[in-house]
Design a protein that fits this description.
about 130 residues, 4 helices, mainly alpha
């Protein structure tokens, strides 16, 4: 069960990283992230998307490593810490996406994503 939860969570983070890659390339998906203020992110906001691309890809790799899909022994000591940090971030993201964003698209898409991934991460850390 740990492997399945880790794989699903990793796919979610890689999908989020792909979203940021598309935003960096200028696709009109800005209403789904960062408050949804822009349809196409201005160049200054694309720098933030580059950071998110790197972070979400790294988190996805940690989930895959923790679930046994990768054999990155040098990262094993960091996996649980990264997953814990991602879980805490997701808890805050649930509330910010549900109540603080003005973007209806971000609220409808990212709130369930964060909630599902938070449940998966919590299960990985505390139940399995």
């Amino acid at each position: 069960m740990l492997e399945v939860f880790c794989f699903i969570a990793a796919i979610g983070f890689f999908a989020n990283a792909l979203l940021h890659l598309l935003l960096i390339a200028g696709f009109p998906l800005g209403e789904y992230v960062l408050g949804g203020k822009y349809v196409i992110l201005p160049y200054s906001m694309r720098v933030v998307s580059v950071l998110f691309l790197i972070v979400w890809s790294s988190v996805g790799i940690c989930y895959l490593n923790y679930g046994g899909f990768l054999d990155l022994t040098k990262l094993e000591s960091l996996d649980r810490i990264v997953i814990l940090a991602a879980t805490v971030f997701l808890l805050f993201a649930i509330f910010s996406n549900a109540f603080l964003t003005e973007s209806k698209k971000e609220r409808l898409v990212m709130t369930p994503f964060c909630l599902i991934t938070f449940i998966l991460s919590s299960s990985i850390l505390f139940l399995l």
